[in-house]
TrEMBL record:
Residues 26-141 form the Co-chaperone DjlA N-terminal domain. Pfam families: TerB (PF05099). The lineage of its organism: Bacteria, Pseudomonadati, Pseudomonadota, Gammaproteobacteria, Oceanospirillales. It comes from the Bacteria. Gene3D superfamilies: TerB-like. InterPro entries: DjlA_N (IPR007791), TerB-like (IPR029024). This is Co-chaperone DjlA N-terminal domain-containing protein. Transmembrane segments: none annotated.
Length: 153
């Protein structure tokens, strides 16, 4: 039994090291999907907000955009953790870009009309991992909350 467990661990390690590193677009989309999934509800407004954010951020055509969203959702459902995505964004993006990503996370959290405590917790954790300051975390939350309130008025 121990031998079969060791073989399984070796197979999993070989598969994960053989996989090519994710692109910046996939890493971004996967972290945004993490926020959408945090409250265990996938709302159409959140999917549309994700689609628009990725379209604006990466300038993708509709087919490529759909593929990216599908792949990101598959990655977040299959991944044990999201550290490889966080690490890529932390290494490749400047502080302002990481703050803008946190702002996009808040926009997704408010896309369905309300922010869930689970979404806030997930964004807080991701912001910490992305080395976004608490002040920027709070400021982007407040700005997106105000924007969402203005749209619903």
């Amino acid at each position: 039994m121990l031998a079969s467990l060791q073989r399984w661990i070796n197979d999993m390690t070989a598969q994960s090291s053989a996989a090519e590193p994710p692109s910046l677009a996939l890493a971004t989309a996967a972290l945004l999907c993490e926020v959408m999934r945090a409250d265990y509800r996938l709302e159409p407004a959140e999917l549309e907000a994700l689609r628009e954010e990725l379209r604006q951020r990466f300038g993708l055509e509709e087919e490529a955009l759909s593929e990216l969203m599908e792949l990101a959702q598959q990655e977040t459902e299959a991944s044990v953790d999201h550290h490889r995505f966080v690490r890529l964004i932390r290494d490749e993006c400047d502080p302002e870009s990481r703050i803008e990503l946190v702002r996009a996370m808040w926009a997704l959290a408010y896309a369905d009309g309300h922010k869930d405590a689970l979404e806030e917790h997930r964004i807080r954790r991701l912001a910490e991992l992305l080395h976004v300051s608490h002040a920027d975390f709070v400021r982007t939350r407040h700005e997106e909350q105000q924007r969402a309130a203005g749209e619903s008025s």
